Amino acid sequence: MTTPSRLFSRGSWREVSRVADVLRAETVGGALLVGAAVVALIWANSPWRDGYTALGGLTVGPASLHLDLTLAAWAADGLLAIFFFVAGLELKREFVVGDLHDPRRAVLPVAAAVGGMTVPALIFTAVTLSTPGAAVGWAIPTATDIAFALAVLAVIGSSLPSALRTFLLTLAVVDDLLAITIIALFYTDDLQVVPLLLALLPLAAFTVLVQRRIRSWWLLLPLAALTWALVHASGVHATVAGVLLGFAVPVIRRTGGPGPGLAEHLEHRWRPLSAGFAVPVFAFFAAGVTVVGGGAGAAFADTVTWGIVAGLVAGKTVGVLGATWLVQRFTRARLADDLGWPDVLGLSLLAGIGFTVSLLIGELAFGAGSPADDHVKIGVLLGSLVSALLATVVLRIRNAHHRRIAAAETTDSDGDGIPDAFDRSPHDPGHA
Prior knowledge:
By secondary structure, this protein is an all-alpha fold. The chain is about 70% helix and about 0% strand. It is built from 16 helices and 4 strands. Strands 1-4 form a two-stranded parallel ribbon. The radius of gyration is 22 Å and the shape is globular. The relative contact order is 0.18. It is found in: Cell inner membrane; Cell membrane. Na(+)/H(+) antiporter that extrudes sodium in exchange for external protons. This is Na(+)/H(+) antiporter NhaA. GO terms for molecular function: sodium:proton antiporter activity.
């Protein structure tokens, strides 16, 4: 008789160790992101708010190449390309050699991500149905901010099972892929075919070099920059170039020997830049909305604001939790023995923290600096805050329950460097 697969089951020790390293980097990045957003909000609502606006509107770059962009645009189009490059590396690695290369393990985060995208979009559309022109923002509440969510999780859930953290990471990565697909398909205006076709040339050259395991930055970086510039000129959002470049990098070492492959090597190099600089700088320029002088009142009277809040708080929770329940209901999968549905509820609430990509889609949908974009920022900030607070309540309760389990997982009685719980894991190589 076939043993039912377990939802949120523990992965291999190697995979859990790698995810732990990722979580540490993203947690620090999340703290920097929150700090940058707070500074932006304080500055944008201070007597010196004109200086904040002037800084974001400062234009730099060569006009001859159509790259004379404002600092805010450079942050959204340029720095976020680094964020999506790392996301592309992570996603490819997960499905090539990670624990999720097994379709039985991959189906849950993929289904949860799809549910967490579909339900918020439907809720936003329903709430804003009476507002002309608001439907264009349907995708704003569909994305989860992994850095922000992991920063919250690190504070409130130190004893939560590693499998739950791994699931959140993978859910957010798949979420990013869906978000960038939405951006490419639905938020591309005035498509220029020639630059888009020309972008294939440096992308192909980049692919050939990385497939040959060439790591020379002076070869790869110019090709990546040229690919980005041509995609930007085509009208497709330039962050798409980051994902394509990430997908081009091979995951498995050519020799098959020990050690990291090129994708893991590049991810190790670029993740600190992404989490520690690119995303916080974008947050600094994107989150500064002025609420003094009647700005908050106008936002709270707009259905766009409440559509985003409802989409993030209720939509993400229902979508992620509902998709997980459906996977269990119609497959043989079951929750892991040490997890309960309150854990899944807390994680689903945490997925409602939408920040980086939500703000980006808001700018693409309504135009950066427009009144509607300001309402988007307030909706995203409020929805993310409510989701974080509700997740804190649920997961703090569950954290005490799992503290004993976490203590057992750190016990290494045989001194082999691998916790006893993982010695018994069926996913570890050599397990009988």
